[in-house]
Amino acid sequence: MTASSPEAGALEALIEALKRLPGVGQKSAQRMAYHLLQHDRDGARLMAEALRAAAEGIGHCERCHTFSESALCPVCADPERDARQLCVVETPADQAALERTNSYRGYYFVLLGRVSPLDGVGVQQIGAAELLARASEGGVEEVILASSFTAEGEATAHVLAEALRSRGIRATRLARGVPVGSELEYVDLGTIAHALVDRR
Ligand SMILES: [Zn+2]
User: Where does the signal peptide begin and end (predicted)?
Assistant: First the structure.
């Protein structure tokens, strides 16, 4: 019996749905489900509405691919940003983390993935061709590769840097203030800001 089958009870379906969240196992999911039903039905309804609105209303910015409710995200729609810099990140969460540092005024390109040879994910699958086209547009003087400092993030930065440099585009990498093996999303803002300033 699966969560979506009509025979599954509503409580089981809720627990199964909660288990889809990262880091949430059977016990945590049960605790959340019982909490909502016992103490916070309004919260449960609010959550259901927010989830539906987000799942149906949020798409991708057609220019940088981050999450956006309109064709262009607020950053891409802002003519005051510095068009000479293009920062490449792996995920919309990474883009949001960089934005929160308030230390970067250029535009972004969100890969929506990273190179992972073991999973058969190459540069083609993460939008490299589109990135090269975007970086070749007039005005871009530097592409800052801000993929994670994991093995896959490093591999991603490496192949993209080679592709960019072979086209005469300057590519820099975030400096190593960021701990090895870390997801950018979880790095503190000061470290990210420092790494951004010290990029090579
Ligand atoms: Zn955008």
Answer: none
